[in-house]
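Researcher: I need the complex structure. Ligand is magnesium ion. Inputs:
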Amino acid sequence: NLADSLDKTFRNLRGVGKISESNITDALRDVRLALLEADVEFGIAKEFIAHVKEKAMGADVLKSIKPGEQIVKIFHDELAELLGGDQVGLNLEAPGRLMLCGLNGAGKTTTAGKLALRLKREGRKPLLVAIDLYRPAAIDQLATLAKQVDVPVYTPDASESDVVKVAREALAWAETQRHDVIIFDTAGRQEIDERLIEELKRLHVFLQPQETLLVADAATGQQAVSVAKHFDDAVGITGIILTKLDGDARGGAALSMRSITGKPIKYAGEGEKLDQLFEFHPNRMADRILGMGDIVGMVEQVASKIDEKDAMKSIERLAEGKFDFNDFLDQMKMLQKLGDMKGLLGLMPGFNKIKKQIPDAAFDPKRLKRTEAIVLSMTPDERRRPEIIKASRRDRIAKGSGTKLVEVNQLLKQFGEMRKMMRSPNKMNKMMRQMGGGL
Ligand code: GDP
Ligand code: MG
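Model: Output:
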């Protein structure tokens, strides 16, 4: 992905003591290719490169003490700017009307549920309305999600075929129930077609929603850009919600969609669970694209679910290269609480590549329990210094934990490799240390 391909370029640049025009030109060529590979639209990539070059060629940069780092910063800031600058929230004064649109499978219905939960937690009284009149299953799906987040849902009769009529009835109902924000989940299509667009336009004209959000799958790349443009031309979207950022999504779509429509990305969906909708921060996304890892996001996620002090302690030990099996146990407990560990790993600097090599099975709770049993069967000294564990002890540990010798061997080997990796990339250690020190 974009982060991977840029990683090398930036590693090279950071190490450069003196920047010349040819350094910059080389780096920019790499970056341009990386951007194109990540599905950033051609014109946007070109413009971005020109911009960075102009800034990077400025005399101040060339004279600076750490030109490499400064250029990386220019890249970062430009990316963040391209992604929208500051975070933009929802504008939903009561009675608020919010309409979601997008292609089938983009995540509209899921996002409707997530938004309802979010607004409810903010003290609003939301109503969900199903306006997908083509697929009865879509209505059931919204009703199920509504139940999960404990928010009322308005569902039309199966015989109904006029979206405006349904919308009018839903609004009347919302008024009697004193709902202060109404979320409309609309129908999608496999691809843009006239009928869908006409229907959305009629609905939009009738509803006059304060927020018309396009829900787009972050993994769809180039296609997402033309989709965004079409929807924006048809109904004038007020923002974008990017879904499935927990997957292998490339940053390219986000970049292009924002540039082409000029509309802010307001939220990011990062999982199927209903609380996995987060504010979109261009700054952090730029970090992520540049492969620095979404540290702030990570710490926030960790802090919201586990004790911040514990988390920091273990991160500091990581940074000092002192990480042992006792820390590992602590961390496993934290991670178990966190649930989606793979998602978390993706946010950590340097882990992007590693993450892909870890099989999903490694995150299986049953397996985690076995791993925990193995560690618990070690003596405290062995946990501190796993290198002292000899063959005979491995056998005992396997028996003691009710696991197999191969599992014990595998764990010790993986742990050894993990430690090595944590000690080696200076970049990561440095960042962790800065982070630990800053908190
Ligand atoms: P719709 O057709 O636009 O209404 O899309 P749905 O809401 O039905 O979502 C399609 C699929 O994508 C479902 O399986 C959702 O669970 C899944 N999905 C939606 N948002 C996310 C997300 O942020 N991350 C992940 N991993 N899956 C998502
Ligand atoms: Mg749907």
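Model: Summary of the prediction. Residues 348 and 431 are 10 Å apart (CA to CA).
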